[in-house]
Amino acid sequence: MLQISDLETRYGKIKALQEVYIHVESQEVVATLGANGAGKSTLLNTISGVLKPSRGSIKFLGKEISKRRPHEIVRMGLVHIEEGQGVFTRMTVLENLEMGAYLEPDAEIIRKRIGDTLSRFPALEARSKKFAATLSGGERQLLAIGRALMVKPRLLMMDEPSMGLAPMLVKEIFNIVQELNKDGLTLLLVEQNVRKTLQVANRGYVLELGRVVVEGRGQDLLGDPRVQATYLGGR
């Protein structure tokens, strides 16, 4: 579904990504791990068209997208939930979901998608007429996910979806990831919570200073001494 080859992205003269090779198969959950500054968010921003690579290829569903604009990439079915629970705080929950469906011209389809999304996230249904500014951090993250689902994505990229959330909410977010994947959605995750991420991921890549240094199946990476020593406290 997604094929990245020899990718390089720069901030001025600084190479934030270099010689990156990553692939994501249909209906996989793939994790991208690494310390702060490793290039994880840069990778997602480059895939989604927010940043332009200085070299390399990004193919989605067999089509080159490295020179496409973000809205064109979304239209193809590749959706990016950025870090920070970004929602339209001066709009209601319902209006946020409607914004997610801006590509869909059929009002009846939009109503059905809103109904499906609110059924999936009862906490949002109870607050559908409230401004997003009044939501908790966990509710905002649910809203960000719900708005992305309104596009009916083929591949959903999530950047730090559990950041800043209480442990129970973190568990809920990872349960949602698994549920979405069981429903047939392909996901590419960037996460600091390495243990939980690798428990739900089919495969993973570890980035250091913009390069992939380790890759493998999720369960294999959990047992990898390098991953354990660096990200799991040696356990």
The CATH superfamily of the largest domain appears as: P-loop containing nucleotide triphosphate hydrolases
What is the 3D form?
globular
- Which spans of ≥5 residues are poorly predicted at pLDDT below 50? none
Number of helices: 10
The structural domain count equals: 2
Strand content: 25-35%
| Strand tally | 10
Query: What's the CATH topology label of the largest domain?
Result: Rossmann fold
User: Strand arrangement, largest sheet?
Assistant: 6-7-8-3-9-10
Q: Determine the fraction of residues in helical runs and give it as a percent range.
A: 25-40%
Query: Could you give the order of the helices and strands?
Result: EEEHEEHEHHHHEHEHEEHH
| Mean pLDDT figure | 93
Radius of gyration: 18 Å
Structural class: alpha/beta
CATH architecture of the largest domain: 3-Layer(aba) Sandwich
Quaternary structure annotation: single chain
**First-to-last CA distance:** 34 Å
Topology readout:
Blueprint: E1 2-11, E2 14-24, E3 29-33, H1 40-47, E4 55-60, E5 63-64, H2 70-76, E6 78-81, H3 93-100, H4 107-120, H5 122-125, H6 137-149, E7 155-159, H7 167-182, E8 186-190, H8 194-200, E9 203-208, E10 211-217, H9 218-222, H10 225-231
Parallel strand pairs: 3-8, 3-9, 6-7, 7-8
Antiparallel strand pairs: 1-2, 1-4, 4-5, 9-10
Helix pairs in contact: 3-6
